[in-house]
Structures are given as structure tokens and as C-alpha cells.
């Protein structure tokens, strides 16, 4: 099993610790990991802004870069969704894209559904609230959308339950949007911030010390609001907790 590690561009620049935690947890599983140096942006920011010609260039670059791997794994549900759901118009039944589309996984999805890990030798003695990002939750099915009114299941929660000493708090709204939405947070700043404040308040009201999730973009948005308002809560990407990172 040869894994191509896809690191979203903003995470590479702003959150190298999360990127290294992703690599660490995959290497702990004795998987063959490769980081192709020709990788670049998946095109999601351009898609949010309607720049279709730029998306096509990036989509073809992505497929060419990752087509020969057994699996492609990334610590970002929204970027994975971009590849799986929004590249098709640029590929007419292309075999390379069809392979990439069925081979790419968000890291929690990969650990839960493909590797099916049952044990983690890590401890995290803190109260943690799970933020279910929209793309991962609904498009990748990392969790059960509340509007379906069926028994709730969360792959993120299942993975965190393997961590010793952790306390997962219950939120009032398990799958509410944080308001980020890429360029939505720029074009609709007031709405975006208001949604982020509501999401943070739910975690604070539930006495969480940490907000975690599978999309650093959502966590980045909430972290900015937390820092500006000097709230007593932190954000951590889920792979940091699973990989044994310390709370600071």
C-alpha cells in the first residue's frame, strides 16, 4: 500500500505541526508514505470565487501528480471533497481521474474505514468538543447529519474514543456550520463572524477546553475569533490529538 500524502497549501504554510502530525500517525502504522514535491493547491479557493479556468489547470496538475498511488490521504475534508466532487467537468471519463477520485481520503476517513484502527497509545486528559465541518460531515459522511433524524454516528468521535483519558463533551448542535466557507468569510464577513461566535459559544457552554475537527480551515476561522475576543478555549486539529501532541 503506497500512500501519497496531500498537504493543503495553506496548511503547509501556516500549520506545519498539523502536517507533521498527519505524517507521524501514518508512519506509526508502518505505511509507505510519499510526499510528491510537485503537488500544489487543489483549486478550492478558485472554485469558491468562480475562477474555472484556474481550477482546470490545478485539477490536471493534481491528477498527474497523484495518479500512481494506491491511496491519497489529506488532513482536510474540504480539499478532499474538492477533488472527489468538483473535478469531473474537466475530465471526460478519464481513467486517471477516476482512479484518483476513488483513491483519495480524508485522514480520519482513511484511519476509520480503510485501516480500521482499534488502538492508540496516546493520552489526552482534557475536555474536547468536536466540530463537524460541513464538507467532511455531509459530503464525505464523517458523521450523521442531524436533519436526517437517524441514530447519530461520528467517525471523529469513534477515533477520539481510542485516546486515553479524553472527555468528549456533548454540544447543543452537533453539526452546525462555523461560518468560514472559504471566500464566504471575506464577502460576507459579518454573517461569517456571527456564525463562528455561535459555534464557539456552544463549545464554551459545554465546558470544552479544546475545539477539534478534521478541517484546519474551520478551526483557523474560529481560532481567529477566539484570539480577538480573548476566549478561554483552544483549537487543535484531530490528528494532533491522535498523534499524541501535547496541549499547550
Explained architecture:
GO terms for molecular function: oxidoreductase activity. The chain is an alpha/beta fold and 248 residues long. It has helices at 9-14, 16-28, 44-49, 52-66, 77-86, 95-103, 107-115, 134-139, 155-160, 184-187, 189-205, 216-229, 238-242, and strands spanning 2-5, 32-34, 71-74, 104-106, 127-131, 167-168, 210-213, 234-237. The strands form 2 sheets. The protein has a 4-stranded parallel β-sheet with strand order 2-1-3-4, sandwiched between helices. Helix 12 (216-229) links the parallel strand 7 (210-213) and strand 8. Helix 11 (189-205) crosses helix 12.
How would you sum up this structure in a few lines?
With 248 residues, the chain is of the alpha/beta class. The protein has helices spanning 9-14, 16-28, 44-49, 52-66, 77-86, 95-103, 107-115, 134-139, 155-160, 184-187, 189-205, 216-229, 238-242; strands at residues 2-5, 32-34, 71-74, 104-106, 127-131, 167-168, 210-213, 234-237.
Q: Going across the major beta sheet, what is the strand order?
A: 2-1-3-4
Instruction: List low-confidence stretches.
Output: none
Q: Could you say which overall geometry the principal axes of the C-alpha atoms support? A: globular
Question: Beta-sheet strand percentage?
Answer: 5-15%
Task: Give me the secondary-structure category.
Answer: alpha/beta
Work out the radius of gyration. 18 Å
Roughly how much helix do the residues carry, as a percent range?
40-55%
**CATH fold annotation of the largest domain:** Rossmann fold
Number of strands: 8
The overall pLDDT average reads: 93
Number of helices: 13
| Integer count of domains | 2
Characterize the main sheet.
4 strands, parallel
Euclidean distance between termini CA atoms: 35 Å
Compressed to H and E, one letter per element, the order equals EHHEHHEHHEHEHHEHHEHEH
CATH class wording of the largest domain:
Alpha Beta
Domain Cysteine-rich: 4-84, 128-223
GO molecular function, one term: oxidoreductase activity
Pfam family, one: CCG
Protein name: Fe-S oxidoreductase
Amino acid at each position: 500500500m503506497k500512500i501519497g500524502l496531500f498537504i493543503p497549501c495553506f496548511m503547509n504554510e501556516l500549520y506545519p505541526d498539523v502536517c507533521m502530525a498527519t505524517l507521524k500517525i501514518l508512519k506509526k502504522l508502518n505505511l509507505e508514505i510519499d510526499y510528491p514535491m510537485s503537488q500544489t493547491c487543489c483549486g478550492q479557493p478558485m472554485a469558491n470565487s468562480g475562477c474555472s479556468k484556474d481550477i482546470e489547470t490545478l485539477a490536471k496538475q493534481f491528477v498527474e501528480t497523484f495518479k500512481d498511488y494506491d491511496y491519497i490521504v489529506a488532513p482536510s475534508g474540504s480539499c478532499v471533497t474538492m477533488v472527489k466532487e468538483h473535478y469531473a467537468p474537466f475530465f471526460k471519463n478519464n481513467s486517471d481521474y477516476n482512479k484518483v477520485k476513488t483513491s483519495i481520503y480524508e485522514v480520519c476517513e482513511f484511519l476509520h474505514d480503510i485501516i480500521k484502527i482499534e488502538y492508540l497509545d496516546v493520552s489526552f486528559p482534557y475536555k474536547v468538543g468536536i466540530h463537524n465541518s460541513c464538507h467532511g460531515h455531509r459530503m464525505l459522511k464523517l458523521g450523521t447529519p442531524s436533519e436526517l433524524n437517524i441514530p447519530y454516528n461520528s467517525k471523529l468521535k469513534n477515533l477520539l474514543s481510542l485516546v486515553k483519558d479524553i472527555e468528549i463533551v456533548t454540544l447543543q448542535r452537533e453539526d452546525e456550520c462555523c461560518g468560514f466557507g472559504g471566500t464566504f468569510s471575506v464577502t460576507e464577513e459579518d454573517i461569517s463572524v456571527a456564525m463562528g461566535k455561535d459555534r464557539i459559544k456552544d463549545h464554551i457552554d459545554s465546558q470544552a477546553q479544546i475545539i477539534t475537527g478534521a478541517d484546519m480551515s474551520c478551526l483557523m476561522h474560529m481560532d481567529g475569533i477566539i484570539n480577538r475576543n480573548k476566549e478561554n478555549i483552544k483549537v487543535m486539529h484531530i490528528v494532533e490529538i491522535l498523534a499524541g501532541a501535547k496541549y499547550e
